[in-house]
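Question:
Now give any protein.
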Amino acid sequence: MPLRKTTVESGYVEVGEGVHLYYESHGEGRPLLFIHAWSLSTRVWWEQVHAFSGKYRVITLDLRGHGNSSKTWDGHTVAQYGRDVRHFLMRLHLKDVILIGWSIGTAVIQEYLKQFGGADLKGVVFDDQSPYFFKEPGWRYGLKRGKFTPEDLHAYLIGLQTNRYSLSVENFREYFYKPPSEEMLNWLIRESLRTPTALGACINYDLAYRDFRPSLRKIRVPTLLFFGVGGNIFLPETGEYMKKQIPESKLVIFEKSGHCLHLEEKEKFNRELDQWVSSL
């Protein structure tokens, strides 16, 4: 993978008894806090660290159980992750923060907003995530392009326990608009396997049953929505639905991306994000 920009600051923040979250901070200025997808880490944001650290303070964070953060056996719910982020902002005395969440990172931000409103936030970015995963009558914007069921979740969790590597290969390939290089695929799998399987299964189960649809209209901070058209994760029309629900929101569609917008169309991702942040 490409070399990342030299870290200006890194360390751990205690967000609960025995729970330490790893973070890296680059540059100075308005804080942009990037939150990774399920089972990944700070390392997925190397392109954004390089692009933004000359203008902003770019902070990347490992959620509990992920990356270099504490591998605790409890607290693996989206609600707790949201509280962890709140404790993190308070411990670092961060104000006017832009929270950027990819995949589960979006759900963590939605939970933060649900619990704490816009406390210490300037805006939020939801990067390719549906507010509710399961297929049901009248709802077609869930996971697997609207086809995901509780039975699929059960099969997925069994697969995690019995053949995680093969399942990871299949899943990460579905993240992309065009087939990823073997280097990229293998790197994502190696990074993902740093999250213990039992912990990953716990947060996956909790995430699947979260329904943030009723909360969207209550969001009171500027919101940027990013959605890709490809892959086998979410329909781009999910973004249109969310834009209609969130009062002060902007939608950007990525025509040549699946679920990995910040990697597949990094120049567009960085440009759109920078323009939006500058407008706030």
Remarks:
- Residues 98 and 277 are 8 Å apart (CA to CA).
- The radius of gyration is 17 Å.
